[in-house]
Please model this.
Amino acid sequence: MVFLKVVGGDVLLNREMVKDEQVQSFDAKIDVVLADSTAVRVQVNGAVRPPGESGERQEFTVSRDG
Model:
């Protein structure tokens, strides 16, 4: 399960994603919740975010650079 929300705003995504599906956002800040951090590949501002442990839930906020 992937949850994406604009900080202080709208929910962008709240569901399971399928293989090879991509989501992009150009908002200034996004809250991210991953039910299993090894189930998805996260890239932020061109850099791949390292996955956590198998089954690990992660919550973090990302900011658009520049």
Observations:
- The first strand starts at residue 2 and ends at 6.
